[in-house]
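Hello support,

Our group uses your service weekly, and this is the first time we've seen a run hang past the timeout. The protein is Methyltransferase domain-containing protein. I'm not sure whether the cause is the sequence or the server load. Input pasted verbatim:
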Amino acid sequence: MTDQAFAQADPEWLKLIGEARDWLAGPLGQLLLEEERRLLEEELARFFGGYLVSYGPGAEGPPKAGQIQHNVRLGAPMPGVQIICEEQSWPLGEHAADVVVLQHGLDFSLSPHGLLREAARSVRPGGHLLILGIHPWSTWGVRRLFAQDGLARARCIAPSRVGDWLTLLGFALEKRRFGCYRPPLASLAWQMRLRRMESWGDAWQLPGAGFYLLVARKLVVGLRPLRQSRREPMGKLLPMPVAKISRRDADS
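Update from on-call engineer: The timeout came from a worker crash unrelated to the input. Re-ran successfully.
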């Protein structure tokens, strides 16, 4: 089944996901995912429901969400993916999920608009869509311009722009969080020395962090009130003259 999915999938998309997965499996990618996991699980702990669906190129398992009954991962035909599909062809019914998580899905996508529409369609009214992406105005975003690895393929879409897309798709942005304030240095020793930057950044929630987390709620579409039919102004009723009939005329 997996081999057949490999044969049918877009080769350009598979190459993109493979390069992204390799980079996320490296030391810098793991640093980013470690900080993301902490914030993501904090947010997911307050949600409940039947289904959580996650999509992204990383090799990590689905994020933990203790109050959600079923936690599934979909995406490219790679280890750890439970439902194989392309980015714009999710095999889910409309409003199927209580929560959808896009973890760097928009960063490594052939069509970010198409992917976001597919994810938005899958969220039930009142449900939530969580998006994690690399912040373009950070040291991580700047490194992408000079990278020779999978990070060079990242789109790094600004959180304000993603927020505008969500508004057009009928979502209300509830929260915007940032994380991973350490610069993307390959040295593990320097990463340990700079670890304190995370607590400083979390306290102030400065926008120069390596990634952002957007939490958006799908608005419930209510019944529209019936539009009042327009009434054209009518003229005044004027009394009509009544002909007087004499008794003589009536007897005749």
